[in-house]
Amino acid sequence: MSNAVPVQLSAKDFKSDQEVRWCPGCGDYAILAAMQTFLPELGIPRERTVFVSGIGCSSRFPYYLNTYGMHSIHGRAPAIATGLSVSRPDLTVWVVTGDGDALSIGGNHLIHALRRNVNIKILLFNNKIYGLTKGQYSPTSEIGKITKSTPTGSSDAPFNPISLALGAEASFVARTIDSDRKHLQSVLRQAAEHQGSAFVEIYQNCNIFNDGAFEVLKDPETRDAYLIRLEHGQPITFGKDGSHVVTHPAGSFGLAVSEAGAVDAGEVLTHDAHAEDPAYAFALSRLAGPDLRHTPVGVFRSVRRPSYDELVRNQLDAAKAKAGEPEADLAALLNSGDTWTIL
Amino acid sequence: MAEHREGAGQAGQLSEHGHPAKEIHQLDRVVIRFAGDSGDGMQLTGDRFTSETAQLGNDISTLPNFPAEIRAPAGTLPGVSSFQVAFADYDILTPGDAPNVLVAMNPAALKANIADLPKGGTIIVNTDEFTKRNLAKVGYDSNPLEDDSLAGWDVHKVGLTSMTVGALAEHPVSKKDAERAKNMFALGLLSWLYSRPHESTMHFLERKFAARPELVAANKAAFNAGWNFGETTEGFAVRYEVPPAQMAPGNYRNITGNTALALGLVAAGVKAKLPVLLGAYPITPASDILHELSKHKKLGVTTVQAEDEIAAIGVALGAAYGGALGITTTSGPGVALKGETISLAVALELPLVIVDVQRAGPSTGLPTKTEQADLNMALFGRHGEAPVAVVAAQSPVDCFHAAIEACRIALKYRTPVILLSDGYVANGSEPWLLPEISELPDLRVEYASGPNGEDGKFYPYLRDPETMARPWAVPGTPGLEHRIGGLEKADKTGDISYDPANHDFMVRTRAARIEAIDVPDIEVEDPSGEAKVLVLGWGSTYGPIGAASRALRQRGVNVAQAHLRHLSPLPKNLGEVLASYDKVVIPEMNLGQLAHVIRARFLIDVVGYNQVRGLPFTSTQLETMLEEVIKNV
């Protein structure tokens, strides 16, 4: 299973023979197409790429890619992917999940995969609704959301997935949008290159049960005022012609948005995705309000810390360096401790 | 004490210490119960005594019994921890129904255990703990050592704590550490009384306290003080010997069921030439398997302590998908949580071993006590038609072989296998005749390496005609890229299928492939060939049922015994065997779960005998019950 020969593959190679069965107009199509055209770039053979998913609309994703794939059970994909990744360091393992799958039923596995820094790439398709079960509110739905299960409005406060991932000290945290293929692929590329857990929230439109949830971030009329594109090492500015900037007011824990002209150029925050302290990225994740105004997209955090896989592998390799012939070692193990002989 | 058989004494000799050597009586079997507070080190004391006894060549069986609380309030009844060890000069099957000797470290230990000690038995009691306060704690109105409530027993009143502290007066250890060494004093005394070799305990102390040499010296001194006390005191007029048992030649070690099970899993990985990946979440009484397996990275074992029971099996299943021998270990509450993933593994048709070390339920139940009440869950506890193979271990040593058998079935037939152990065999121990590695079964299986269809394509659900197993096509294999999942799959292609006929076919196929697993025929032990009653068991009841059957036969009462290792599928000859007896009796530590299966499957009106006290059956109760059944046939 050597990786010596570079592989020339095309998007076609990554399309499976299965008919894609999402609703027409679903944001998942765009993400799938972006993924299929992006995967050949990595030069990783198809057989070494594995997609593991849970349950939900997004979790059908693996069926449509001609790689190895497992459509597992609700919420458990990060756990299954952990077992695969730890035991097979030669594979590239992606997890595809949704807001219900990852944050509700599978919340526990998500945070533990991130804190362990398992070498898996987690793509969370966030459409702020339960689609496959036909329209109940999800853990990212806003308070007051009227759905089939909340006819008088939801009373649940939502998760901010980026804040949650940062709270678990994820080493790579990013957000992107289904309809912006260029940005999506740029984030996927960085996630794929990351050693350790990469968490990518993808805003994805459910045109049946929650249509237009992210429209303000897409509509040319509004998007400039709403969207903040993060670039490592660049001042954080947004709006038409850089009309607005992000600053860190003295004495405040959080960040603030100002008109560019209202502050000195030196006060404009320069994005540092490599900051060790997750507090900075966390502050960034709190900029957006419930109306999505000031939503940062891009890589919030990308730091290097040892992956769980590496640490486990190092211990295993150190032990194996002392190993002899397995059956002889097994015989020695069975015969260890207080033994006696009957003649 | 019917089994005490006194032999020739050796009175009149001088011992090495110059005291007149005490008379030595030979016994064929002794059962000792060490009982004390959960902080008194009774498990360790019992374990050491067992190890010394094993070195001598006796056959042994042990039964630890301890509370779930790590340190229940000192001196209370719920805090009592005990360790029973039976040793004999012949082959024994159980740790004994009742002790001959009770070592009671405090009033609570005496009160909690005295009812089990037959009159005439020996009590060695730590008088230092029999204070007014401690007596009151357990509801003794008067001191049983001073009134006549212990008349009829042979009571030895020993100031274990004060004598230990006295013996260690010159040692540079704290009073607390000196008091703690009282279990070594007790062990020394018992080792003298039963003529046990003490070298292994000396080595053990050197290892255990390697970082604190003063504790090595103090504990050794406490042990020696106990030994010498036995030799010099007039309180003990007689010493005993239990000669070695006739055991098959070879190398032995004493082993608990949990350790044996863990080693069986390691051995399975070696014999399959596969890496082993254990996903586990700590749970009593299964955690020791996780602890043991975490030591064996050199042999290719990776352990992942997962965030919960569901993740633990998920990790194991993910590794199995990647080509490892995936294992998860737990107890009943954990199996309940893992049900959905087991169901997924049924659909994926991947090898997976789920170890359930059963404990008393429902809910948290009695977490440190034994029960066999997870059989229904193992057989049926999943949504949909989700058949799996089920294997049960019958003794501590058998846990090793049962683990290998579970792995064999999982790998060969690409199926989840539930391996049932329980608290009794998990924590109990017995001597193990160490196997030759070359005699263990070869568990190698092949991954798929290329297309399997006549058309040159790869079909993930095209089955091996012999085993009905689908190919194990692990990621990384070029040309075999495919998708699997929990949605119903079309026969052969594995594509998603909602076709009614296909679902019916797949459900029946999954059931048929479990039924087709090759399991050996059940063997019947019926030496006379004239028994009319068959006693059928499974799992850890093997010991007590076997001992009861032997006892009956010794008295000329015919009884046949058969024990199930495979509960799914059942042995092919089972129906025929059951039909050849007038009556079938099934003792179980549940309310009749196997009996229910046997009645439904074979339409035989079996007699259930059921107990759920968190304790194993005694052989005496089974003997009495069986005799009654036999009389009425």
UniProtKB/TrEMBL annotation, chain A:
Residue span(s) of domain Thiamine pyrophosphate enzyme TPP-binding: 55-202
Gene Ontology BP, a term: cellular respiration
One annotated GO molecular function: magnesium ion binding
Entries under InterPro entries matching the protein: 2-oxoacid:Fd_oxidoreductase, THDP-binding, TPP_enzyme_TPP-bd
SUPFAM superfamilies hit by this protein: Thiamin diphosphate-binding fold (THDP-binding) (SSF52518)
Alphabetized PANTHER family for the sequence: 2-OXOGLUTARATE OXIDOREDUCTASE SUBUNIT KORB, 2-OXOGLUTARATE OXIDOREDUCTASE SUBUNIT KORB-RELATED
Pfam name, any one: TPP_enzyme_C
Keywords of this entry: Oxidoreductase
Name of the featured protein: 2-oxoglutarate ferredoxin oxidoreductase subunit beta
Domain of life: Bacteria
TrEMBL record, chain B:
GO biological process, one term: response to oxidative stress
Gene3D superfamilies: 3.40.50.920, 3.40.50.970, Pyruvate-ferredoxin oxidoreductase, PFOR, domain III (3.40.920.10)
All copies of domain Pyruvate/ketoisovalerate oxidoreductase catalytic, residue ranges: 39-226
Keywords assigned by UniProt, alphabetized: Oxidoreductase
Signal peptide: none
GO-annotated molecular function: magnesium ion binding; oxidoreductase activity, acting on the aldehyde or oxo group of donors
Disordered: annotated segments: 1-20
Residue ranges constituting the Pyruvate flavodoxin/ferredoxin oxidoreductase pyrimidine binding domain according to the UniProt record: 277-493
Source domain of life: Bacteria
Name of the protein in its database record: Oxidoreductase
